[in-house]
Structures are given as C-alpha cells and as structure tokens.
Write a structure and sequence with these properties.
By secondary structure, the chain is mostly beta strands. The chain is 13% helix and 43% strand.
Amino acid sequence: MQADPKMQQDATSGQFLTFYLGKEAYGVDILKVQEIRGWEAVRPLPDAPEFVKGVLDLRGIIVPIVDLRLRFGNTAPEYESTTVVIIVAVGTGPDTHLVGVVVDAVSDVLDASEAEIKPPPRLAGSINQRYLLGMVSLERGMVVLVDIDNMLSEKELADLELLTE
C-alpha cells in the first residue's frame, strides 16, 4: 500500500494538539493553533450552515465558530464545562483566516514522527477524506490527524467571510 502523497507532504512529522470529539481522539498541527478558550455563547448568524454556531469577537477580530462535532456528524453535541473552542489559522499567507472549532475537550500535545503517521483508510466513516492527514496509533488508542486547512471548502470559507463582514 502506497502512502498518500498529500499525507507525506503535509504530515511528515511534528507536534499535534490532541482533542476529543466524544470518545474519539483527534489532532491538529500545533502550529495552526492560535489560542484555546473555554466555551462561551456566540452570536448566531442568520442563514449559516448548522455546523457554524456563530461568531465571537476576539480582541477586535470577528471569528466564525464551527462546531467540529456537528461537522463530523454528531447530531446532538452537548456543551459542558470541558467544551472548548480552539482558535486555528486556516490557510496560508494572505489567505489565512482565523476560525474557532468547538471540541469536547483538549487533551495534550502529541509528538509524531514520519514513521508513526500512517495514511488514513480509504473508508473513514462519516468523515470526509479531505479532512484527514493521517493516523497515529498509541497505547491509549488511535489519534486521527485532521487537516484543518481542508475542514472547510473554499466556498464555505468564502461564505463565512461574507457572513462575518
């Protein structure tokens, strides 16, 4: 089985902030993380997709908030004391946007080498393949590495930008 060239390019090694959606562990490139905030009510936006909870004012910057649990198919997420918003930089260069992603809990930082990161299976359940960088097996279980830059399509990012202007 050949490794996915996209995975080799994007997830060769590094540090990943791990978090939970339900009982499943996920990770995002630590260099994309700008801030971690406790859950707070956000300003809803009319006509936004269901997974877009609204916006918050982050020191003068309007940041759209995406509930990653809804995005990945959980139809009834609960907002508890461990629920957090991870503020991430999506995109690169002048096309970088801040987006907040709602998760159930933050865990720790995972150091993963190129050899430890395996390509995702062709059938990854309800999660779209474009969201995945790879997978890491640990003693405590599997961590799915999320490609935060592809979590939203270009159209969805453009729509969010219009909604938050």
